[in-house]
Write a structure and sequence with these properties.
By secondary structure, this protein is an alpha+beta fold. It has four helices and eleven strands, in the order βββαβαββββαβββα. It is globular and about 55 Å long. About 30% of the residues are buried.
Length: about 200
């Protein structure tokens, strides 16, 4: 079977798996509702309440190398937080914060001067007239469970919306939520070159 490499713009409220293993009659949306390709699996995960770039492949070794934290591949997120982080909070995030008895690796963080151009989320995030929000761009080299949300909460700025925009050099570009495409040959070559140096 030929190797497949797919990027998908995962919408909010979609599981990063092809089946919903709950016994409840109210089945949740899964990747199967969007991607009619068999035998590909997500590289890492995006939580149900997170959005954005998800890479899927049937190339087992590449999947392992991208998922394993020891290989430290960058993942970039746009993060909407409650209130406006000060310089101290940004420095804490950059240096790493303690979450669940673990100190995160240093993170690239910048406060965005304008909100990124994203389609509205359904349902929209909660809006509180008296509480401003801000957008951060964060690049991590590890992907622990709900890490971005736990990091921003640890410095006092809870995450309201989380969108992954890049994995290494791969970017969402023109993909709308719910859309997917195969990687082109240039993207595949660059990915393999980075992974298998």
């Amino acid at each position: 079977m030929a190797d497949r490499y797919i990027i998908f713009n995962k919408p909010y409220n979609v599981l990063s798996q092809f089946t919903d293993n709950t016994d409840n009659s109210n089945q949740r949306h899964t990747l199967k509702d969007y991607i009619p390709v068999s035998s590909v699996y997500p590289v890492g995960r995006l939580d149900r309440d997170s959005e954005g770039l998800l890479l899927l492949t049937n190339h087992g070794q590449l999947q392992h190398r991208l998922s394993n934290p020891k290989f430290a591949h960058p993942r970039t997120y746009w993060v909407q937080v409650e209130r406006i982080p000060d310089e101290t909070a940004l420095q804490e995030l950059q240096q790493g914060v303690i979450i669940k008895n673990y100190k995160t690796r240093p993170t690239k963080v910048k406060l965005l001067s304008v909100a990124p151009s994203l389609p509205p989320r359904e349902p929209p995030i909660r809006f509180r007239k008296s509480v401003p929000t801000a957008w951060l761009e964060m690049t991590l080299t590890e992907g622990r469970n709900r890490q971005v949300r736990r990091m921003t909460a640890a410095v006092g700025f809870p995450t309201l919306r989380l969108v992954r925009i890049a994995i290494a050099h791969l970017q969402l570009q023109e993909l709308k939520p719910g859309e997917w495409r195969d990687l082109n040959q240039t993207e595949i070559s660059s990915l393999k070159q980075m992974i298998f140096l």
